[in-house]
Specification:
By secondary structure, the chain is mainly alpha-helical. Helix content is about 80%, strand content about 0%. The chain has a two-stranded antiparallel sheet with strand order 1-2.
Length: about 240
């Protein structure tokens, strides 16, 4: 299912803006309906009146923002649809391009890690009982289409070549199997898992809102792109509801 998601993302060609809009919707849905509720459930304790998982969510969002600002790699899509631009243009240096590609790889790697956690979830659920395990497995398989789609899209969006994107897609496809296998050896403390999910949720939310949506709307600020974003959110709601 992960590979199917990646294949669909690969085949879109000139409908890329619709794909990116859909990807942003999927990511928003994953964060709001899946990652954050799960993070809150697994790390419910509060720090100065705020759930620790939500603090980690803010930390994840800010961490990737600080990284992007620090290495000045935000590609200034605003220049394509507003008066100002960050002025990188053709002077975009080799080092900066490499750092930019690095963000794409880091984002895709985080999705691979998330998929491995999904595998953990399947393994742990089967330890709790076959019925629970089957339900969780179906939920993860439904998510995997979105994971594959996002892994390929993110890797390519940040200037990485197709071979690298496909390699990360295959890693993402193998990750749940690996995760499920690891649960045969030991279990992760829920607390830690909850904090990780919160942090990763913030990371994804930043990429969706700061990079993917501006990129989706810059060439064609179309109603179609907006509709695809809403469709992506709705699709994840449906998946989580069925799960």
């Amino acid at each position: 299912m992960t590979l199917v998601g990646g294949f669909v993302a690969q085949r879109t060609g000139d409908r890329r803006h619709l794909v990116l809009g859909f990807a942003a919707g999927l990511m928003l849905g994953v964060v709001a309906f899946d990652l954050l509720p799960e993070a809150m459930e697994q790390a419910p304790q509060q720090v100065h009146g705020v759930p620790a998982a939500l603090l980690m969510f803010a930390a994840g969002f800010l961490a990737i923002h600080v990284v992007e600002r620090a290495v000045a790699i935000h590609r200034g899509h605003e220049g394509e649809y507003a008066a100002h631009s960050h002025g990188h243009g053709h002077a975009h240096g080799h080092g900066e391009r490499q750092r930019e590609q690095g963000v794409g790889i880091a984002a895709a790697s985080a999705l691979v890690l998330h998929s491995m956690m999904d595998g953990f979830a399947i393994g742990a659920a089967f330890q709790a009982g076959t019925t629970v395990g089957t339900v969780v497995a179906i939920a993860v398989v439904a998510h995997d289409f979105a994971d594959g789609f996002n892994t390929y899209t993110l890797t390519r969006l940040y200037g990485n070549n197709r071979r690298r994107a496909v390699a990360l897609l295959f890693a993402d496809a193998l990750a749940p199997v690996t995760g499920a296998g690891i649960t045969l050896l030991f279990t992760i403390p829920e607390q830690l898992l909850g904090l990780y999910l919160g942090f990763f949720g913030g990371f994804l939310m930043y990429l969706a809102t700061s990079d993917i949506l501006p990129e989706a709307h810059s060439p064609h600020p179309s109603k179609g792109t907006l509709a695809c974003t809403l469709l992506g959110v709705g699709f994840m709601w449906l998946v989580v509801g069925l799960a």
